[in-house]
Structure formats: structure tokens, C-alpha cells
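Progress note, project year one: complex with zinc ion.
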Amino acid sequence: MNPPVRINPSILAADVGHLYDACRRCEDAGGDEIHIDIMDGVFVPNVSFSPSVVEMARKAVKIPLNVHLMMLRPDQYVDAFCDAGADTLLVHIEAEHDAADTLQRIRDKGVRAGITLNPATTLDAIESVLPLCDEVLFMTVNPGFGGQSFMPEPLTRLAELRKRHPDLALAVDGGLNRTTCKQSRDHGANVFDIGSALFNPKDMAAEIRWLRDALA
Ligand code: DX5
Ligand code: ZN
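Model obtained:
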């Protein structure tokens, strides 16, 4: 499969009292990018990090920052998160914005732009904005919380998109572990955003090595 496998630890699963160290741990363990979940308490029933957490991560590590906006109005925060140091900024197609305009504005900031689909959203919803996307993220849980069970339904859509776009970065996020990572890989995913299954094991580096081997 074409685009390289990327394993991105999600710091939502980290101890919030030690976020700086958690970012360093992800980098030292061989993570490709740090996945940072931003929740506004409106688009999803939870509140998480702010642009200042992205700034902190930017200072902590050299690897890219993959920032996932679970916000009703992501268009109002493009500048804040790009200026804070996001390397990829992902917005939801279900949010209340002109997605094409938001994605274009992200690219104009020199940042990779990504569209995200909730598990129930079909591909026709993103069709018109695909040319503006550097990455497409398929949620494999309903967004809002870490540690939920994997939902396999989006994988059929992911496989269909992979057929049409062999080189596009296709990501999965939510409920990933050894088994569900392999299952997603078999359907064409190449980016894996993983919280609990990387932070729970004692040795994150060994877990990333295991996954890299299994997903190659
Ligand atoms: C869920 C977030 C995920 C979360 C995944 O709303 O978007 O990135 O951190 O956590 P796990 O891997 O524990 O399901
Ligand atoms: Zn996420």
C-alpha cells in the first residue's frame, strides 16, 4: 500500500498533570506525529485542550503535530491553531462552517488540511472538498472520549476511498488496538491515531515497534 504507515500517539490518554513529559515520551518512543484532540463542549459533550497546549507540544518535540478539532465552529480557530504550531489541522465535515473555505484557509497558512467524518457520515458528504484535503480521518468511535470500543462500519467507506485515491493519507481514530489497527490497515488505512492502547502499556516504544512491524 502506498502512503507510509504513521503511528500517532494521542495525548488525550496522557496524565494531564504531565503533558509536556507525555509529548516527549511519544517522540522518544518513536511516534510519527502527536495527535492532539481539541473539544469545545458543543460539537462533542466534552472539553479538552486549547491552542496553548499545542504551543506547549511544539516546544516539547520536533515531530509534527496532528491537531483534531472537534469544534462546532472550527473556522473561527484556524489562525489560532495554525499559529500555535499545528502541522496538520483536521476539521469535521459535520461542523457548522463552509468546509471548503476552512480547508483552503488552513492550506493558505502553510498547514496540511484534513477533513474528518463521524462513523455515520457517508463519503458523498466530503466528495466536493476532497481536492482540498491532504488527509481524510475516519472516526471509528463517536468523538468525545478516549477508551471507547472500535466501530468497524466506517472501514467499508475507507476501503472505497482508498481504491479511488491510492496516495491520499487515510487515518483512523478511536478504539484502536493491535487487532483493530490490523483490521483498519487491511481496509487501506495508513495513519493510526491511538490513545489508550499506547499509553496503557508500560513500554510505549515496544508497542509502537510491534505495530510498525504488524502493519508494514
Ligand atoms: C476521540 C478522540 C481520539 C481519542 C482516541 O474523540 O478523537 O483521538 O484520543 O482514544 P482511544 O485510542 O483511547 O480510543
Ligand atoms: Zn482525535
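The chain has one domain: 6-215.
The pocket of D-xylitol-5-phosphate (ligand 1) is lined by residues 10, 12-13, 35, 37, 68, 141, 143-148, 173-176, 193-197 (CB under 6 Å).
No further modelling is planned for this target in the current period.
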